[in-house]
Design brief:
This protein is mostly beta strands and 143 residues long. It has three helices and eleven strands; from the N terminus they run αβββαβββββββαβ. The protein has one domain (3-136): Jelly Rolls, CATH 2.60.120. 13% of the residues lie in helices and 36% in strands. The strands form three sheets. The chain has a five-stranded mixed β-sheet with strand order 3-4-9-6-7. Strands 2-1-10-11 form a four-stranded mixed β-sheet. The radius of gyration is 14 Å and the shape is globular.
């Protein structure tokens, strides 16, 4: 699957707080292959409004070739946020986080993710099988 088709496949994917159903990220892009995770948001001038990026599996990130700061939330296999790094500027590294199964990246200050939150991914039923395939480590719902 190329990056353009991956983006269209996740156009109707959201990240919510599993405890209260509050939408945390309106449009969640999934980076589940090596190349999707490696590329991430590199070279983007700015992220689209309401967009987040889920990298899985993943336990560390870099911001090389990025042009904006991001907030980074690491979650474990149960979807529990175990570490948050806020305002990570370009050309930085967040070293491996013990127990992390994946990462959510959002533009700095937009998603308000916090340690202890339990995350859930909501996906459009048509796209759900493809989305869930890369997300064995986080709770998903297909409405």
């Amino acid at each position: 699957m190329n990056d353009a088709s991956a983006r269209s496949e996740t156009a109707n994917v959201q990240l919510v707080d599993a405890s209260d159903g509050r939408v945390l990220v309106e449009r969640l892009e999934i980076a589940a292959t090596f190349w999707q995770r490696f590329r991430g948001w590199q070279f983007c001038r700015e992220p689209p409004a309401g967009m987040g990026l889920l990298l899985a599996p993943c336990n560390s990130i870099h911001t090389c070739w990025m042009r904006f700061a991001i907030d980074v939330a690491f979650f474990d296999e149960a979807g529990l946020v175990v570490h948050v790094a806020s305002g990570v500027r370009p050309w930085r590294v967040v070293w491996p986080v013990r127990g992390a199964a994946g990462v959510i990246e959002t533009p700095a200050g937009t998603a308000r993710l916090a340690v202890g939150m339990r995350l859930r991914v909501l996906a459009d039923p048509e796209r759900c099988p493809r989305v869930v395939r890369g997300l064995a480590s986080i709770s998903t719902s297909c409405d």
